[in-house]
UniProtKB/TrEMBL annotation:
TM region positions: 92-113, 173-196
InterPro entries in the cross-refs: Ig_E-set (IPR014756), IRK_C (IPR041647), K_chnl_inward-rec_Kir (IPR016449), K_chnl_inward-rec_Kir_cyto (IPR013518), Kir_TM (IPR040445)
Membrane topology note: Multi-pass membrane protein
Domain Inward rectifier potassium channel C-terminal: residue ranges: 208-375
Protein name: G protein-activated inward rectifier potassium channel 4-like
UniProt keywords, alphabetically: Ion channel, Ion transport, Membrane, Potassium, Potassium transport, Transmembrane, Transmembrane helix, Transport, Voltage-gated channel
Domain of life from the UniProt record: Eukaryota
GO cellular component: monoatomic ion channel complex; plasma membrane
Entry's Gene Ontology molecular function annotations: inward rectifier potassium channel activity
GO biological process, one term: regulation of monoatomic ion transmembrane transport
Annotated Pfam families: IRK, IRK_C
Record has Transport as a keyword: yes
PANTHER family the record matches: INWARD RECTIFIER POTASSIUM CHANNEL, INWARDLY RECTIFYING POTASSIUM CHANNEL 2, ISOFORM D
Length: 387
């Protein structure tokens, strides 16, 4: 009874006037679907056209999520994380401002101490100290420029030269000890930030490339969604793992979002050996959230597929994670990826052309959903058996 209902609904969908069956319509009229950024057909989407283009994860892997004012970390923790995640130019500018501010601040303190002690009076300057028998807090201090240079010498410990502290002023000794402690903390933070920026895995993820589009095509008689991942560096990534999640959106954008994991497999390599670009394959079967989605449904679909690629860097042993997303506008129905690896007879090596990572070619593919396609196969087998 269910098969007859499916047959009637599919006959209405294809609107065949001939005597041919629905299975013949599907098998004899394959096609290619090109997605386009077009508004949804519902009236609700027309009132909110800007909601369609927003992603939860951008193509470069950054999250498009605002968690609000939920950061309860301390000032130095937030500052450290901000410096690690900032661009190099802003980090170097911050380093320059931090060190210069430290030198100016303690140089001003030394200048105030010298001014209060009377070291900057004309008769107490270094050329007249022998005649007046004056002992300053810091030797060879003429003004703020001298105290600034003394502050730099205390910080960098490049030896004092002519400017050296004396036992005349205990407050100068206290200020110098306090500057040494502050400078040690500053240098510890700066070295930690530089080490974290140089060794963080995020820079390594920039060489892991995803295909711009995902394709839906037949593979071993089943509809599959496929995208490709490649690593451009010579240093390998071990223990690779691919995870894919689909984020379904309801009819109302104010509803909660449903996140479902999709079962995927890697085609072209083992999980411990990432030799060349691999294809991440999701078989659209009964357990797939895309089981009832056809090529026409992509026109009015509202979902986003999140792809996560993880592994271990061979040279450093650090974990690396690369991310991207595919919306309904990034899926090509009726395409397949072209071959990237070919032997080079001149150099006697295998050539991997990364310029073809996103290139696809047309291939005849049923436009119906995987559920409808399976029903048509069962009906076709039933008709063959009865005849």
């Amino acid at each position: 009874m269910n098969e007859k209902q499916d047959l009637i609904s599919l006959n209405e969908q294809f609107d065949d006037t001939d005597s041919n069956s629905v299975t013949e319509a599907i098998f004899l009229e394959p096609g290619v679907y090109y997605p386009k950024n077009r508004p949804l057909h519902s009236q609700k989407s027309r009132t909110r056209p800007t909601k369609q283009t927003k992603r939860f994860v951008f193509k470069n892997g950054d999250f498009n999520i605002d968690k609000g004012n939920t950061n309860h970390q301390g000032f130095f923790s937030r500052w450290f994380v901000t410096m690690v995640e900032a661009r190099w130019r802003w980090t170097l500018v911050h380093f320059f401002l931090a060190f210069t501010g430290d030198w100016l601040f303690f140089g001003f303190i030394y200048w105030v101490i010298a001014l209060a002690h009377g070291d900057l009076i004309e008769d107490h300057l270094p050329p007249n100290q022998n005649q007046s028998n004056w002992t300053p807090c810091v030797e060879n201090i003429y003004g703020f420029t001298s105290t600034f240079l003394f502050s730099v010498e205390v910080h960098t410990t490049v030896a004092y030269g002519k400017r050296a502290i004396t036992l005349e002023c205990p407050q100068t000794i206290t200020a110098m000890c306090f500057q040494c402690m502050v400078c040690s903390i500053f240098q510890a933070f700066m070295v930690g930030i530089l080490f974290a920026k140089l060794t963080r895995p995020k820079g390594r993820t920039q060489t892991i490339l995803f295909s711009r589009q995902a394709v839906v095509t037949l593979r071993d008689g089943k509809l599959c969604m496929i995208f490709r991942v490649g690593d451009m560096r010579k240093s390998r990534i071990l223990n690779i793992k691919a995870s894919v999640f689909v984020l379904k959106l309801g009819d109302d954008y104010d509803e909660n979002y449903e996140q479902t994991e999709m079962q995927v497999e890697l085609d072209g390599c083992e999980t411990t050996f990432f030799l060349w670009p691999v294809s991440v394959i999701h078989v659209i079967d009964e357990k797939s959230p895309l089981y009832s989605i056809s090529a026409a449904d992509l026109l009015v679909g509202k979902f986003e597929i999140l792809a996560v690629f993880e592994g271990v860097i061979e040279s450093t042993g650090q974990q690396v994670q690369a991310r991207t997303s595919y919306t309904e506008c990034d899926i090509l129905w009726g395409h397949r990826f072209i071959q990237m690896v070919k032997p080079d007879t001149k150099s006697n090596m295998y050539d991997v052309d990364f310029s073809k990572l996103c290139e696809t070619e047309r291939i005849d593919t049923p436009l119906c959903s995987a559920s409808e396609y399976k029903s048509m196969l069962s009906l076709f087998d039933l008709n063959t058996y009865t005849t």
